[in-house]
Amino acid sequence: MQRPMQRIYIPHLTKDPSKTRTIEVHDYLSGLETLTPVKGRIQVQHRGNFLEVSAQAEAIITLNCHRCLQNYNARVQVDTSEFIWLQDPQPEEYAEEVEVSFDDLVETLPPQGHFEPAKWLYEQFCLAIPQRQLCDQTCEGIANPLTSDETSTETDQRWAALSALKQQLSD
How many structural domains does the chain have? Predict the structure, then answer.
């Protein structure tokens, strides 16, 4: 059994060969329900004032079809890279409204802090899960019981009052 991915103390990366650490992944990620372990590789490179992090990984997860509501299994793949700037955190100013510049919308870590590869990979998998989940492109959705061949002439008694009103309105 492999040990879980350890967080990386950023200053130690500068002592690694080529200032690079490669992590082979073959494990389940905490918080991510998968049928198979996540398999792949993460590479973290220290580039002076930023980290360059890249990953290629995959796992099989169970999704719920948005049309027919049936569960189905799907392969989710991550093939991404990201720059994480190394800068000391700025003191938070307490104000009701804060303007945020485009430059502030990037990931940052303190230069003397830690990088957590398992957390980062979890976030990448969450972003890779499809927003539109369909078991099949030709999925028809939930079958309408009124259009099925087995239409029943019996009416549920709970709908009897509505059926009577509908009959009155059509007359």
Answer: 1
The Cα–Cα gap between 119 and 65 comes to 27
**96 domain-assigned:** yes
The residue length of the chain stands at: 171
Closest CA to 42 of 150, 122, 132, 142: 122
Say if 164 falls within a structural domain: no
The two tokens of residue 143 are 């079958």
Distance CA 4, CA 26 (A): 9
Give the side-chain half-sphere CA count within 13 A for 55.
Answer: 25
From residue 137, give the alpha-carbon distance in Å to each of 55, 130, 132: 28, 13, 11
pLDDT one-digit tens code per residue, 35-92: 999 999 999 999 999 999 999 999 999 999 999 999 999 999 999 999 999 988 766 6
Enter the DSSP assignment of 7. P
Please check whether residue 62 is in contact with residue 87, taking contact to mean a CB–CB distance below 8 angstroms.
no
Contact between 42 and 25 under an 8 Å Cβ cutoff? The reply is yes
Assess contact for 32 and 122: CB atoms under 8 A. Answer: yes
DSSP secondary structure code for residue 148 in this structure: S
Is 60 exceeded by the pLDDT of residue 158? yes
